[in-house]
Amino acid sequence: MTTFLAAIADGLGRGSVYALIALGFVIIYKSSRVISFAQPGFMIAGVVLVTYLVEIPGLGFFGAMALGAGLIALLGLGVERSVIRPMIGRPVFAIAIITIGLDIILRTVAHAYIGPLVRHVEDPWGREMLTVGTLRMEQRHLAAVITATVLVGLLFLFFRYTRMGLAMRAVAEDQEAALAQGVSVGAVFAVSWALAAGLAAVAGSFAAAGVSVDNTFWPIALYALPVIILGGLDSLPGAVLAGVVIGVLRSLADNYPDALSWLGSNPSVIVPWLVMVLVLVVRPYGLFGTPEVERV
After folding, report:
1. Which pTM value belongs to this model?
2. Which of 172, 188, 196, 259 sits at a 20 to 30 Å CA gap from 117?
3. Are residues 219 and 40 in contact, defined by beta-carbon separation less than 8 angstroms?
4. What's the total number of domains in the chain?
5. 22 pLDDT exceeds 60?
6. CA distance 39 to 198
7. How far is Cα 221 from Cα 208, in angstroms, rounded to an integer?
């Protein structure tokens, strides 16, 4: 039972990281109906930037993460303005292909700054375990859960009560109707990309805390794909819940590999993708996604 609870706690920490990255996917998709495959690139760019910022005296982990996320958000804004904006009106497929190219460019540049060795994000918790009764949880995972909860709450308030948040909700519902009401769809697209990039940087910072950052770090962001399929491409609550589910399933697979030995020696790598395939077969729009209705 102790192992099971520890796996759940570890999964919550992982799931918080996946949820933050997935929220970026969903925010961009809701505003523009484009799946941005550039999220892994923004994540690794943010992580590498944070590894340099933590070296500034007095800044610390949270200061470096906040500053890094802000700078990567500006990068996302610049990418949208310079690369994505001219593509408005073009086929969505073409824009999606461009985001794959952006991802490769961002990762290549970020890897150049990693160098031949590895880099490290400050770990203010030193891999220390927090013990509550029989439950043991890494403090970095608890910090990730708390930070993700706060950010999700702030996003909820932003979308519900701010002028830009309301504009983004209107664009998500109907771009043409929003335009007719005077909403700046271009500004909504730009803010969407900035938010997505910033969230990816925050997620990457927590994923990197206490571990090495090298050229093989970026695939962590790919686990957001099963998350958005499970939760629904256009559902923010779905991204949060599905992130937790995928994180917990991966952790359980790590702790009970014998039960999934038929998936090979490392089932935790396969489980999220197996879930994604099953969801696509049974419920293609996810748990909370909006079914597409075509008129003929």
Report:
1. 0.91
2. 196
3. yes
4. 1
5. yes
6. 10
7. 12
Please provide the size of the chain in residues: 296
240-266 pLDDT, tens digit per residue, is 999 999 999 999 998 888 878 788 778
**Full domain range(s) for residue 167:** 2-222
- Whose structure tokens read 């999964």? 11
Is 245 contained in some domain?
Answer: no
| Mean pLDDT of the chain, nearest integer | 87
Residue 254 domain flag: no
Give CA–CA dist 35/14, Å, rounded.
Answer: 22
Q: Give the three-class secondary structure for 204.
A: helix
Residue 52 lies inside a defined structural domain of this protein:
yes
Q: Which residue has the higher pLDDT, 229 or 210?
A: 229
β partners of residue 121? 209
Residue 233 lies in a domain: no
Q: Taking the C-alpha atoms of 69, 71, 74 and 79 in order, what is their torsion angle to the nearest 10 degrees?
A: -90
Secondary element (H or E) of residue 150: helix 139-161
Contact criterion met (CB below 8 Å) for 34 and 28: yes
* E strand map for 206-266: 212-213
